[in-house]
Amino acid sequence: MNWISNYVRPKINSLFSRREVPENLWKKCPECGTMLFHRELSDNLNVCSNCDHHMQFTPRERFTALFDGGIFTEVKVPEPVADPLHFRDQKRYPDRLKAAQKATGEHEAMLVAEGEIGRTPVVAAAQDFSFIGGSMSMYVGNAFIAGAERAVQMKRPYIVFSAAGGARMQEGILALMQMPRTTVAIQMLKEAGLPYIVVLTHPTTGGVTASYAMLGDIHIAEPNALIGFAGTRVIEQTIREQLPEGFQRAEYLLDHGMLDRVTHRKKLKEELVSLCRMLMGMEPPVAGDLPAPPAEPALAAPEAPAEEAAPTPKGEPKT
Ligand SMILES: [Zn+2]
Question: How far is the centre of ligand 1, averaged over its atoms, from the C-alpha of 55 (Å)?
Answer without folding.
Answer: 9
